[in-house]
Specification:
Chain B: Residues 90-221 form the B12-binding domain. The complex is a heterodimer. Chain A is an alpha/beta fold. Chain A is built from 15 helices and 9 strands. In chain A, helix 4 runs parallel beside helix 7. Chain B contains 11 helices and 5 strands, in the order ααααβαβαβααβααβα. Chain B starts with a helix and ends with a helix. The chains are: A alpha/beta, B alpha/beta.
């Protein structure tokens, strides 16, 4: 079976030789090509090449088209990204510097015509052509209730979210939701078929359940309304969200859940059951200092919790560059070994 | 009588309802309580209660932490203007986001709580070099340097808290200036703080204020 078929089997509960093994290494491609981060992220061709080389090196099941989270801010007018050769790029220019800028924020009528989109399109075109028939192609979309954090800074956004003025907040959310809808449609059109919907404000770690139900949920529904939700993965930026899994099923009808390493995985698996797909996620920050044996033991623990009953895949967070290559290799190999199915 | 205000104020803070919290403060002032009473018997106990609640229930959410700090800082600032004499400050901390890190929410929560706990806070902003942390701590006689890092590479970089530790060691300042760290990577690896040369860490902004006060007391009993 191809990795794409193995993923489909896990989602539908059909037989497969093993569980799917996902690995996310968006920042490692530059090193793979011997480039600076700034150069690597400048062209979609480089990103596709780097990710394809990583896929061939480690042999996991998915491939990423993500450039960096700040790409979305660039599509909305951000003019400066702070690149680092040892980690993820940062947004260095907030598009919204004061509340008056929200009225002026312009959502492109077609984001695919924006110059910053070109590299995304170029990358996905190559990935689709090279591995689209065999591998899941992952893309990253920030939810409307979280996107403002990279447009104005998390503290300013938290203040506006909680204290208002609420008409201004809702105007920003409407614009961000319009953008989110467009981005999802554009990524699907280019062949992305696993869309990681990043929604930290959909986690009770960020805001209360009441705030999720009353304020966040209606915007998430709006973000995801067009085009169905079979390919959407609920992901809260590594924050825990077991307490809202039922709510996400009921309100958003999302079936795939990317569980935080800090969450109780057994509880998450029990809550999701056969209704959807549970992703057990390793704490890859600890992998920086773990031995290969510790890494292997943790992979075994996660898979033993999740594998029973199927509907399970293994994944990681955002693999820090400081994680030794031997530990990445051990993680992937152990996931294949312990993930074998009878 | 103040007990009723404490209960109402705490309720408002936990529900992240700033207008309701400020209304409680105004009502208490109208009923004759002093600005000193408001800070020392209402605001500070509310922060301490939040610290206790977080210890018991680490799932208290970020919005509650943020509002605890913001309301406390706002009320304290307004009340301080009305104090009959300036309060005695516990100590001084230099805070900022690590070099290469542009995130500011965490340090804003920490700063808000510290100000209400009568700690002088010198906020250096984001993307701060190790040299600037140490030079400022020396020139301002701070007892603690607090380095916030939301990304793995800014937490572990030689230019972040490891750089601060090197400079403190090099200049013989380790006994008089303590180093605290915080931010998402430390939550995922609770041992990480030892690997970046810090004296202490905290899993959230409100608890960080307590950790920093404890460090100040180590240096300045």
């Amino acid at each position: 079976m191809t990795p794409l078929e193995i993923l489909t089997a896990a989602a539908t509960g059909n037989p497969a030789p093993r569980i799917p093994v996902f690995c996310n290494m968006p920042d490692h491609g530059a090193r793979e090509l011997g480039m600076s981060a700034k150069q690597y992220f400048s062209k979609g061709e480089y990103i596709a090449d780097g990710q394809l080389r990583l896929l061939r090196r480690y042999g996991y099941d998915n491939i990423w088209s993500l450039h960096y989270v700040g790409k979305e801010a660039e599509l909305l007018g951000c003019s400066e990204i702070l690149f680092a050769d040892d980690g993820a790029p940062n947004v260095a220019d907030f598009v919204i510097k004061n509340l008056d800028d929200i009225a002026k924020l312009d959502i492109p009528t077609d984001i695919t015509l924006h110059p910053a989109w070109q590299s995304v399109a170029d990358c996905l075109k190559i990935l689709r052509s090279e591995v689209g028939g065999t591998h899941p192609i992952c893309a990253y979309v920030t939810a409307s209730t979280t996107l403002p954090a990279i447009l104005m800074g998390m503290d300013k956004w938290m203040e506006l979210f909680l204290l208002g003025p609420f008409d201004v907040r809702d105007e920003l959310l409407r614009k961000c939701s319009d953008f989110c809808q467009q981005e999802i449609a554009a990524l699907r059109a280019l062949g992305a078929n696993v869309l990681i919907y990043s929604t930290p404000f959909g986690s009770p770690y960020f805001v209360s359940r009441k705030q999720i139900e009353q304020t966040v949920m209606p915007w998430m529904r709006r973000d995801l309304l067009p085009g169905g939700n079979e390919d959407i993965v609920y992901y809260c930026g590594m924050a825990t969200f077991n307490d809202v899994i039922d709510l996400v099923f009921d309100e958003l009808h999302l079936k795939t859940h990317y569980i935080s390493p800090l969450a109780d995985l057994a509880e998450a698996k029990r809550l999701i059951g056969n209704r959807g797909l549970t992703c057990g996620v390793i704490d890859d920050i600890k992998m920086i200092h773990w031995s290969a044996e510790q890494t292997r033991a943790e992979v075994k623990r996660i898979i033993e919790i999740g594998k029973t009953g199927g509907h399970f895949l293994f994944g990681n967070g955002v693999m820090p560059i400081a994680v030794p290559e031997a530990n990445i290799r051990t993680m992937v190999d152990a996931a294949f070994e312990y993930g074998r199915l009878p | 009588m103040l007990d009723a205000y404490i209960q109402s104020y705490n309720q408002a803070v936990f529900e992240t309802d700033k207008p309701a919290a400020l209304e409680v403060v105004n009502q208490a002032l109208n009923d004759g309580f002093s600005p000193e009473d408001i800070v020392f018997k209402l605001v500070i106990p509310a922060i301490e209660l939040m610290m206790t609640l977080i210890e018991k229930d680490p799932d208290a959410n970020l919005a509650q932490h943020f509002m605890t700090a913001q309301i406390a800082a706002d009320v304290t600032e307004k009340m301080l203007e009305k104090f009959s004499k300036p309060p005695e400050m516990i100590g001084r901390v230099v805070i900022g986001a690590a070099y290469g890190d542009l995130h500011s929410l965490g340090k804003r929560i920490v700063s808000g709580c510290l100000k209400s706990l009568m700690v002088d806070v010198i906020d250096l902003g984001t993307n701060v070099t190790a040299e600037k942390f140490v030079d400022t701590a020396v020139s301002e006689n701070a007892q603690v340097i607090a380095v916030s890092a939301m990304m793995v590479h800014t937490a572990t970089s030689e230019k972040g808290s490891l750089g601060v530790r090197s400079l403190l060691k090099e200049r013989g300042l380790e006994q008089q200036i303590k180093l605290a760290v915080g931010g998402a990577p430390y939550r995922f690896d609770p041992e990480l703080y030892t690997k970046v040369g810090a004296d202490a860490w905290a899993p959230d902004g409100v608890t960080a204020a307590k950790v920093i006060v404890d460090l100040i007391r180590e240096v300045k009993p």
